[in-house]
Amino acid sequence: MSDSENEYSIKQYSRRQTGSSSFHWKAILILIIIVVLFLITIGSITMWAYSMKNEPKFKKWKEHAITVVGTYGQGNESNQLDGPYGIFIDKKKNIFITDFNNHRIVQWKYNAKEGKIIAGGNGKGRRIDQLNRPTDVVCDQLNNSIIIADQWNGRVVQWSNQNQQILIDDILCWGLAMDKHGFLYVSDWEKNEVRRWKMGEYSNKGIVVAGGNGRGDQVNQLNCPTFLFVDEDQSVYISDRDNHRVMKWRKDAKEGTIVAGGNDQGGNLTQLSGPQGVSVDHLGHIYVADWGNHRVMRWYEGKKEGEIIVGGIGEGFESNRLYWPRGLSFDNEGNLYVADFVACRIQKFEIIL
């Protein structure tokens, strides 16, 4: 074989070796990419499965309610109500009810067949032992007393074992709330604001924590605020009735955020109609008594629409209907209680576990 032929053979062999080596490293690289992608996929599936397993289950309630107060219809007897407004459930599942047209506060102990008048009940009037269409009540369990929004008398009063005192006067109050830091919050539907007082210190005018910028629909205004809820961070949730929305005002904020409704009055899932009672759970879900739509809705902050959790099929007296719901509250098991105003009853919607 000639030298030229030998040189050619060597070059060809070198090319084959180089090509083989290149192919070998490409194969390894592809294999590494496949393994990495496989591991990423397995990791993603594992994380998704874990999140699904640990994702909080959204609560649901039975469609048909149990009437726990007001079984005997409208009236002023100890087993009757006439236009219930605000309600408060304590740790023992006792129900405190503002019996609007009977000018009294009634306490129903758990599973009781009749209630006990614990404030008012002495006819409509301005005497210290009377009430005039109260709208809300909270229980101060530390001091064994109740605090009442005595709306038509324009005052907030405290009752303790039949002893009464005026805490705040000259205020067209509607809703009340207390936080864990010892502050009392009161909505004023004439001044379109919410004020806060330190418990026991009522000689001052309180501090405006929401609204206070005149009647209007801007995010720094309110238009007839009704019921209130205060969370662990002292954020105040307000049913802004005539703006058909629920507002959230963070502590020390100069304006609020719309967290439910705010799309004009209506019955779509993006709308509310004269919202009343409001509550917020530990996940930040907002529950609101949608008065004009005869339903209770749940909204997630940041979402454009809510969902109906009870009612919403028109007004009525059947167990799956509401008739102008006002206040709402939950017991420590998550059962939902609604003050069904026209039906003169308190409806308990049991949670589905």
Could you write a compact summary of the structure shown?
With 353 residues, the chain is mostly beta strands.
Question: Can you walk me through this structure?
Answer:
The protein has one helix at residues 3-54, and strands at residues 60-61, 66-69, 84-89, 95-99, 104-108, 116-120, 136-140, 145-150, 155-160, 163-169, 173-178, 183-188, 193-198, 207-211, 225-230, 236-240, 245-249, 257-261, 275-280, 285-290, 295-300, 307-311, 325-330, 336-340, 345-349, 351-352. The protein has 353 residues and is mainly beta. The strands form 7 sheets. Strands 2-25-24-23 form a 4-stranded antiparallel β-sheet, with no helix packed on it. The longest helix is centred in the N-terminal third of the chain and has 52 residues, at 3-54. The protein starts with a helix and ends with a strand. This is NHL repeat containing protein. The chain crosses the membrane at residues 27-50.
Q: Proportion of β residues?
A: 35-45%
- CATH fold name of the largest domain: Neuraminidase
Tally of contiguous helical segments: 1
Please give the order of strands in the largest beta sheet. Answer: 2-25-24-23
Mean pLDDT across all amino acids: 89
* Radius of gyration, taken over Cα atoms and rounded to an integer in Å: 31 Å
Low-confidence stretches: 49-56
Number of domains: 2
What's the assembly state of these chains? single chain
* CATH superfamily membership of the largest domain: TolB, C-terminal domain
CATH class of the largest domain: Mainly Beta
Structural class: mainly beta
* Relative helix content: 10-25%
Main sheet characteristics: 4 strands, antiparallel
GO biological process, one term: protein polyubiquitination
NHL repeats: 221-252, 266-296
Organism: Adineta steineri
Transmembrane segments: 27-50
